[in-house]
Write a structure and sequence with these properties.
Helices cover 80% and strands 0% of the residues. By secondary structure, it is mostly helical.
């Protein structure tokens, strides 16, 4: 247990020292939030509701990017630098090492959620009930699991440059087509139809429903679970293939 605790602590410190993480997961979402709620005129009929809605969008955007890029690229770097091979000759088992990465990443997500929520309250005086703050935070934390699974898929790539390029493109495509940057309702009908089946939309919609005073739709939950299972199975299959070579 002590070894697991120390490994979790190490993973958290490594992420916090990563300037890439700090920029994409904290600075950019808060900057976008300020611009789209205070600079750009969105003509939203209910300004307070829009500010709460977009705060959830940018928090989801932050956690989604951290899951896919920070975790995935770090896994590729570790393998290319021989760190994964080194771990195998130490008393630390693969399962403990992998679990520590997941726990460390989730602690980082909890910190990111808290920081962005505080930024929203300070920048726009977003006022939600204690229940809505807690439920939306828990939803975003749990809803990030399918994207952590995508991060492990990115981590299977051989080159850091390839992993960075693929994860960046996938991140932006999912964010835009999932309605995180702009409401899905203003997009073309075909984009709306596709977007509602994407994990990013269902991730964001659960948080949007909470700040509207509702609970996440069962469809959102089931779709995210389906993506989680799919990406986990795919990741396990690719990992076994690579180990067999």
């Amino acid at each position: 247990m002590k070894v697991f605790h120390m490994q979790c602590k190490t993973e958290i410190i490594r992420v916090l020292r990563n300037r890439y993480f700090v920029f994409w997961s904290l600075v950019m979402p808060i900057l976008f939030y300020y611009i789209f709620t205070n600079v750009v005129n969105t003509n939203a009929p209910d300004k307070a509701q829009w500010k709460a809605h977009y705060l959830m969008s940018m928090t989801v955007f932050s956690v989604m990017g951290s899951s896919m890029m920070t975790l995935g690229i770090r896994m590729v770097q570790e393998r290319s630098q021989g760190w994964s091979t080194f771990i195998r000759i130490t008393p630390l088992s693969d399962s403990v090492y992998f679990a520590a990465q997941m726990v460390g990443q989730n602690v980082i997500h909890a910190c990111s959620i808290t920081i962005i929520f505080i930024a929203g309250a300070l920048i726009n005086d977003v006022s939600l009930t204690a229940t809505e703050w807690i439920l939306s935070g828990v939803w975003i934390l749990l809803g990030s699991l399918p994207f952590l699974a995508i991060g492990t898929l990115v981590g299977m790539m051989k080159k850091v440059e390839t992993a960075a390029g693929v994860s960046n493109v996938l991140y932006m495509v999912l964010a835009i087509s999932g309605g995180l940057w702009m409401p899905l309702e203003i997009m073309p009908k075909m984009m709306q139809a596709i977007g509602k089946w994407l994990p990013s939309y269902n991730f964001g919609n659960g948080a949007w429903e909470i700040v509207r005073g509702n609970m996440p739709d069962w469809k959102n939950i089931l779709i995210l679970i389906a993506y989680l299972v799919l990406f986990m199975l795919l990741s396990m299959y690719i990992r076994r293939k690579q180990e067999a070579v």
